[in-house]
């Protein structure tokens, strides 16, 4: 709900011309973004793409950071140098915090980088104590999770990264999102296989398709893959069957998508479905969920209001921080209480 | 001191840096048991094991991409590109991603990407590349190209210890042809420092890599013709040692820029522009460029000889320059 409200607030800011550049919605995909990340531990690594804002917030990124980024504020993690959810958080080795590498726009590149992060973490475990940070030994083995769109799985970079991770038995879980389109191109023009998860067959790694709008199912499948990766059994791919419910970005009216398809998927909205399940199972009441809805909406609005008034970057800083040795400060990504328990395990 | 080849110097730098710092590791195609296509990494796997000397699939994107990821975790990867021509396969990873990472989010990328560059060995169009100009227009990257064994070792050590991505172009023509004295004790050649290989007062040849030797041979011939030539070895292309460049111009007032990459859009244009912008009043003649011809690198020896800069071409250009 928070992801949806943050995005809806961003739409308002976009219409007020306060968002710089494009706005990319994850409408209809918030459920899978959250449920997949929820299968991780607090100290794992995530490499989301533009439609995975929910994963960022699941790992504890404060919405304020996202508003700052979308409005190119000088206070944001990239200090107005990079777009939307392009934030990077590389915590000190011993910290009980996630590794976050925001979207790499050259689609497919994030897979090898994710593999390298997990490989690097594995190599760190073999370092002598003198090179290890305090607290590092207490952390569970790192699992990296990378999200990738159906279109992006057609890149050579995707293939190289997947194959590398498979050969090296790297603890990497890739979430391949079949949301039916890549910009305007339907998935049938993207691949000749029937199911996106079959991409993984060529790498000899486990793969499974899941109903991406069923949050509990997504969580279950992903959790299984995460657990086996953490146990040293190597990479895996989860194929997510979902639908991009808006255009590629705000400028795209999606006229290439038949209305009947949109209507059909509307019925399968992940938030509505999850709500129904929670109420049916008496995990929550409608009233409680309405309260959560109101609270998250107010929270998103408050965060947006904070960000709006923050300053833009100083033009004099344009060439700062290109190389090391220029101590141009980078604000740390602000993390807030996340669904993870204090000891780092999933709630 | 010990006399070693350029290739041994590179290998020694890898050995010593890996021994001194457990975070340093090597990855690339056939770098393990085989020791690399040119045997640069020979013996590393016996000493450091396959966890730190990683044979990868033929996947330049994955090699560089995973190195970037590992560097984010505090490791110090050294990637070998089997022939530097294949660096084009990971161009995106280097230019769009690695080079911009620190600028975007303050995430430094301490990796080294090294590989055999250059021609003169009958490598043909796909195995003779000098790629520095492809990367010169990318802020965030550093680039070096050694011309001696001493520099090969010292620059590689400096590159590995550097906190930014460094492209290390080693010239394959020099691998076993060049030998010089290299100290036993630890040393580095700092990035961004040029070196005067031969002092002179009539003309400066500004160059780097294998062309340093071409320039020195040309200088010997020019001496016989009464021309006192200075040879400035840039060693580092990014960052560039502008001070040494401008000091040499101020001294000789005539500049010949020499590089092995093809002429149009090469680094020579940039060097000439710096001289024109910052030392115009010192010049007694226009800056002259000697470089490879504007064609792909050909295979047949007579074609390759016609393509590459040569001592004769440098001498002829230098004479035109002093006669201007
Ligand atoms: C290598 C590369 N080529 C083209 C683009 C331009 N581009 C950005 S998003 C996009 C569509 C991506 O579709 P998909 O991977 O299915 O993700 P989705 O937008 O559906 O989440 C394209 C073509 C890009 N970012 N990277
Ligand atoms: Mg898609």
Explain what the structure shows.
The complex is a heterodimer of chains A (347) and B (324). With 347 residues, chain A is an alpha/beta fold. Chain A is 36% helix and 10% strand. Chain A is built from 10 helices and 9 strands. Chain A has helices spanning 2-15, 30-37, 53-58, 63-70, 109-125, 156-167, 215-233, 259-266, 270-280, 286-308; strands spanning 45-47, 88-89, 99-101, 144-149, 172-178, 181-182, 185-186, 207-211, 236-241. In chain A, the strands form 2 sheets. Chain A has a 7-stranded mixed sheet, sandwiched between helices. In chain A, strands 6-7 form a two-stranded antiparallel ribbon. In chain A, helix 1 (2-15) crosses helix 10 (286-308), helix 2 (30-37) packs parallel to helix 7 (215-233) and helix 4 packs across helix 10. The radius of gyration of chain A is 20 Å and the shape is globular. In chain B, helix 7 crosses helix 11 (311-323) and helix 8 (242-252) crosses helix 9. Chain B is globular, with a radius of gyration of 19 Å. With 324 residues, chain B is of the alpha/beta class. In chain B, the strands form 3 sheets. In chain B, strands 3-2-4-5-7-6-12 form a 7-stranded mixed sheet, sandwiched between helices. Chain B folds into 2 domains: 2-182, Thiamin diphosphate (ThDP)-binding fold, Pyr/PP domains (Rossmann fold); 195-322, 3-Layer(aba) Sandwich (Rossmann fold). Chains A and B meet through helix 5 and helix 6 of A and helix 3 and helix 4 of B. The site of magnesium ion has 7 residues of chain A, from strand 6.
